[in-house]
Amino acid sequence: QVQLVESGGGLVQAGGSLRLSCAASGRTFSNNPMGWCRQAPGKEREFIAAISRRGGVTYYADSVKGRFTISRDNAKNTVYLQMDSLKPEDTAVYSCAASNSRTFNYAPPESYKYDYWGQGTQVTVAS
Q1: Alpha-carbon separation of residue 91 from 26, 72, 76, 114, 119 (angstroms)
Q2: Residue 49 contacts residue 60 (beta carbons within 8 Å)
Q3: Is 124 helix (H, G, I), strand (E, B) or coil?
Q4: What does each C-alpha distance from 71 to 11, 22, 112 come to in angstroms?
Q5: Which pLDDT band, with edges at 50, 70 and 90, does 26 fall under?
């Protein structure tokens, strides 16, 4: 059974940093793009970052560009999201996703292109 389990969320002051991790089990995703999305209360899910199978291609939503960094460690079957300069509007549940695609240099920014999702971890940024 495939599982994606996020960790690293919590409460942080505005301007602070957090590093989220997403560990996959049940199969390897070293040949597949992975990504992160978030959903704040009362808002639609927003896809914020994606990374290709070898990490050579990344995507960032405008809302996080320059502040968040996605990376991966294929040996650990894990994807990370380093979040710096956090703002209160970054408060949301953050979930990771993995795709079945094996295309090279492919980091799709659309949620529907991902096949597996984690349960999410809460990030709260206090002003």
Answers
A1: 30, 23, 27, 23, 16
A2: yes
A3: strand
A4: 22, 11, 21
A5: very high
Both tokens assigned to 39: 């959903």
The confidence score (pLDDT) of residue 24 equals 97
Q: CA nearest 39: which of 48, 30, 29?
A: 48
Q: How far apart are CA 49 and CA 58, in angstroms?
A: 7
47, 121 in Cβ contact below 8 A? no
Give pLDDT tens digits for 48-62.
999 999 999 999 999
In DSSP terms, which residues pair with 13 in a beta bridge? 126
What does the pLDDT average to over 3-16? 98
Amino acid at site 122? Q
User: HSE of 113 in the Cβ direction (CA atoms, 13 Å)?
Assistant: 17
DSSP string over 9-26: -EEEETT--EEEEEEEES
> Is residue 43 helix, strand or coil?
coil
